[in-house]
Amino acid sequence: MRVLLVEDDNLIGTMVRLNLEQDGYAVDWQRSGEAALQTLRGGRFDCLLLDIGLPGISGIDVAKQARKLGVGTPILMLTARDETDSKVQALDYGADDYLCKPFEMKELLARVRAHIRRSQGSLEVPTDQELRIGLATVNMERRALTTHDGLIQELSDKEAVLLALLHKNPGRALSRADILEEVWGMDATPTERTVDNFIVRLRRWVEPEPDRPRHIITVRGWGYRYEP
Ligand code: CA
């Protein structure tokens, strides 16, 4: 299992790396966002641990750009206590979870394990079938989506679960709260806005005209409805 750790604080970085290595992970430690993105382009990781406050580009921008590059690896943000807005932003831009500093190493290791386990298929998502959603096809086993215009997009954990949830409930209006519960469960505490941001992203892949959606329909004051 390979973890990419991005942290500019020497003490925290050393501690985290040591604990991960003791748990059997191979750790690549980078101290800036630029170096992290370069490393991500060069190899596959099972989990990404991202400090928000980095010299140069921030951890949030790294998460954003990683998702744009099609990286589906679980992202766990490490945040300072006073960065509430950043936490929400991080989740909106594709991070899966966050942990506030100072954190217990045990807690960090448990979260890393949980995210890796879930991203590797023990998910409550059918892994043996191709789902058709709107004009896109999702291969759950490869965790890849072919967009309406034929591009391949690697899916993050949450994106895959959300697509499977919509697919399972055709014609049914799902509330934002239901979606949060089903997709995020006990993880972190994303807001209903997070759901909206994920939907915006999915529509771009599934709908030829994302501004006039025909498959993932907004139900005003409530949530979303999937129409095959
Ligand atoms: Ca920092």
In short:
With 228 residues, the protein is of the alpha/beta class.
Main attributes of the structure:
228 residues; alpha/beta; Rossmann fold; Arc Repressor Mutant, subunit A; five-stranded parallel sheet; globular; binds calcium ion
Q: How many individual domains?
A: 2
> How much β-strand is present in the residues?
15-25%
What is the approximate shape?
Answer: globular
What's the CATH architecture of the largest domain? 3-Layer(aba) Sandwich
Helix content: 40-55%
Using only CA atoms, what is the Rg?
17 Å
Q: Give the oligomeric state of the chains in this entry, treating copies of one chain as homo and distinct chains as hetero.
A: single chain
The H-and-E topology, N to C, reads as EHEHEHEHEHEEEEHEHHEE
State the CATH class of the largest domain: Alpha Beta
What ligand molecules are bound, each kind once?
Answer: calcium ion
CATH topology of the largest domain: Rossmann fold
* Unreliable stretches covering 5 or more consecutive residues: none
Strand adjacency order, main sheet: 2-1-3-4-5
The CATH superfamily label of the largest domain reads Response regulator
Please report the distance between the alpha carbons of the first and last residues: 38 Å
Mean pLDDT: 88
